[in-house]
Amino acid sequence: MVIFNTVTKKYKENIIALEDVTFRIDEGEFCYVVGPSGAGKSTIMRLLIREELPTSGSIYFNEIEVPKLNRRLLPAYRQKLGVVFQDIKLLSTKTLEENIEFALEILDKSKKEIKDSTDYLLDLVGLRERKNLFPQELSGGEQQRGAIARALANKPDLFIADEPTGNLDSDNAKQILEILKTINKNGTTVMVISHDLNLINGTKNRIINIKDGRLNSDTQPKDIDLKNLVNKKVEVKEEKKEEESKKEIVKEEKKV
What is the pLDDT of residues 36-85, one digit of tens each? Predict the structure, then answer.
């Protein structure tokens, strides 16, 4: 699905955004790309959508070598991706429903397909009753959910959410995450980019950690499960030791 192979990205004045980063994301995965602001997380997204080119290394998406992709093929390539940014980019002159319809019209869908898909996407994000409102009439959480619906219009193979909960309170952030998990369960690969470690607290999903432009760690779900399993075994052993100690104390008391 996605392969970054020893990718480095340098800007002018020798500013290094990414250095020798390697990872692979398989089809159907749900993963977080985390790290502090300025770590290089969003650079990964910009390289993947071919907004920028790497200084060195290779990037593949579904066997397409992204940096070498002909510019004429970029629109078709980007239709395979669904992207939501922190600065929500809904069209202010169109209602929520019209924003989604517009994305489908660009794909040259029939009127029936546009109607059916728009209704489905509005239901998916829980905004059918708000469909006739303009973006400025929606709350921040509703705008983000609307942006997610629009980004799903092209049925992307990969959905990228760049700081999707950055400006939201905890309740709205949870709603967004639940929607992203539903998208993943429906078969779409999901990559969530975030600096908010509270977002991944308790997760069993894969976590790719970027620090100072380098891959700091890559925690697989099996690693997390293994840690939980080890902790449980330790707890059980400790409980058994406590029970045995109590029994010994009772025996000693009876002797006395």
Answer: 988 999 999 999 999 999 999 999 999 999 999 999 999 999 999 999 98
pLDDT tens digit string along 120-178? 999 999 999 999 999 999 999 999 999 999 999 999 999 999 998 887 888 888 899 99
Cβ atoms of 146 and 125 within 8 Å: the answer is yes
Please give the structure tokens belonging to residue 114.
Answer: 């546009």
End-to-end CA distance of the chain: 71
103, 101, 97: which is closest to 142 by C-alpha? 97
Note every long-range contact of 20-26, with CB atoms under 8 Å and residues 24 or more positions apart, other chains counting: 20/57, 20/214, 20/215, 21/57, 21/210, 21/213, 21/214, 21/215, 22/57, 22/215, 23/208, 23/215, 23/218, 25/1, 25/189, 25/191, 26/1, 26/189
